[in-house]
Write a structure and sequence with these properties.
The chain is an alpha+beta fold. The protein contains 16 helices and 22 strands. The strands form six sheets. The chain has an eight-stranded antiparallel β-sheet with strand order 13-12-9-10-11-14-21-19, with helices on both faces. A five-stranded parallel β-sheet has the order 3-2-1-4-5. Strands 7-6-8 form a three-stranded antiparallel β-sheet. Strand 10 (220-232) and strand 11 form a beta hairpin. The longest helix is centred in the last third of the chain and has 26 residues, at 445-470. The radius of gyration is 22 Å and the shape is globular. The mean pLDDT is 94.
């Protein structure tokens, strides 16, 4: 077994990994920039090393991270998500310097990170993909010809893209001509590659993804699906497992597709195969995320399997502990990404000091957070500061429990998405499990509802604070 792991990340995911290390008697080593000196992951790790004054560049310096890991006696590195988690060069450096990268091999990350190569792999494996260009687009003339052939609307996508960046929807040729150079520019700046490709746009799809685990002995299983359709600007807000929109036949079908995709790519460790489900209920492969997903938590809640600990076991060379027949799901789980953002101000980031933090509890409630009372959220990183995970046996029960948990959760001093997520839970389309990726755009009234919820929540908190002060 791996004995000591460097966690090449920060925030709530670093805390999550440290907890898994503690339960498996593995020594955890944290890294941090000066801006993160007082971060929770630094306080919880067994050891911690400073990366210097630059808030971001240290987390992106693969050679330095590996040097710290070796100098501190680590035998493995976990990249978390974001930063270098899907960087094949980072994995390659780890392999070259004989330190275990907890994830798939560098060659697999490279193959699946290139969207056109990934499409080709899936086509050969018999996994359905959306109609699109054969390889990367050469120029705008080829782009216009392909769009004419497959029909508008189309999606322009950065070949090396991810995280919702480097994507543009084009409803006609004029928009294609306008957006083509922009996507190339975004792709070059964000991913260091000017390559773009084209796919037919699946109008109002449901975003369904499947969690897979694969060991280094050729065994692959799936842990069923998650519904990630509730999103804005390609960024997820609420995730659900299993999808309340799938029946058992569809559930097993898409799970088998994900296993087929993983085997075709020679995948090992944890990963996620993402699909779009069209209005006619057809599934189309979208991409493979070659890392631990933010929303892995809800799969853990419905299966009882600690995915991070399984990552550690797989990276240690151990075979999977489960067969597919032994994986069962129980109940429903939802994850709420608690972002430090202002929903009524176009979700602009809201950084600053957490004057008071109250974590919810009770049956079926889990909180993965990187914040505490007095913590100052720095302005340099992603706005997600906590994840609220709620489980219950039935769909209506998980909605009610989630309402209670969101009400119990208190994050004061900054604006958060909590009121907006509460508004979603009270929407009839959501309650009836009738939603797709256009849900947020189709319900602009949720912003006004969330403002009222926020004002009511603040009034109750203010009254409680006065009552507590008077009782002292």
């Amino acid at each position: 077994m791996i004995k000591k792991i460097l966690i090449a990340n920060r925030g709530e995911i670093a805390v999550r990994l440290i907890r898994a290390c503690a339960e498996m008697n593995i020594t955890s080593v944290a890294v941090y920039a000066d801006a993160d000196r007082n971060a929770l992951h630094v306080k919880k790790a067994d050891e911690a090393f400073c990366l210097g004054p630059e808030p971001v560049s240290g987390y992106l310096n693969a050679h330095r991270l590996v040097n710290i890991a070796l100098a501190s006696g680590c035998d493995a590195i976990h990249p978390g998500y974001g930063f270098l988690s899907e960087n094949p060069l980072f994995a390659q450096i780890c392999e070259r310097r004989n330190i275990k990268f907890i994830g798939p091999k560098a060659s697999v990350i490279s193959q699946l990170g290139n969207k056109t190569h990934a499409r080709d792999t899936m086509i050969k494996a018999g996994v359905p993909v959306t109609p699109g260009s054969t390889g990367n687009l050469k120029d705008i003339d080829e782009a216009k010809a392909v769009a004419l052939d497959i029909g508008y609307p189309i999606m322009l996508k950065a070949t090396s893209g991810g995280g919702g960046r480097g994507i543009r929807l084009c409803d006609n040729e004029a928009e294609l001509i306008n957006y083509y150079p922009r996507v190339i520019s975004e792709a070059t700046k964000a991913f260091g590659s000017a390559d773009v490709f084209m796919e037919k746009c699946i109008v109002n799809p449901r975003h369904i993804e499947v969690q897979i685990l694969a060991d280094e002995h050729g065994n692959v299983i799936h842990l069923y699906e998650r519904d990630c359709s509730i999103q804005r600007r390609h960024q997820k807000l609420i995730e659900i497992a299993p999808s309340p929109q799938l029946n058992d036949e569809q559930r097993h079908f898409i799970g088998d597709l994900a296993v087929k995709a993983a085997k075709a790519a020679g995948y090992s460790n944890a990963g996620t195969v993402e699909f779009l489900m069209a209005e006619d209920d057809q599934f189309y492969f979208m991409e493979v995320n070659t890392r631990l997903q933010v929303e892995h938590t809800i799969t853990e809640q419905i299966t009882g399997i600690d995915i991070v600990q399984e990552q550690f076991r797989i990276a240690s060379g151990l075979p999977l502990r489960f067969t597919q027949d032994e994986i069962h799901i129980r109940g429903y789980a939802m994850e709420f990404r608690i972002n430090a953002e202002d929903p009524k101000n176009d979700f602009l980031p809201s950084y600053g000091k957490i004057t008071r933090y109250l974590a919810p509890g009770g049956p079926g409630v889990r909180t993965d957070a990187a914040i505490y009372t007095g913590y100052i959220i720095p302005p340099y990183y992603d706005s997600m500061c906590a994840k609220l995970i709620v489980w219950a046996l039935q769909w209506d029960e998980v909605i009610q429990r989630s309402k209670r948990a969101l009400k119990d959760m208190g994050v004061y001093g900054v604006k958060t998405t909590i009121p907006y997520q509460n508004a979603i839970l009270n929407n009839e389309d959501f309650v009836s499990a009738s939603f797709d990726t256009s849900f947020v755009e189709q319900h602009p009234e949720l912003i006004n509802y969330s403002v009222k919820c926020s004002q009511r929540h603040l009034a109750l908190a203010f009254a409680a604070a006065i009552a507590a002060h008077q009782g002292m």
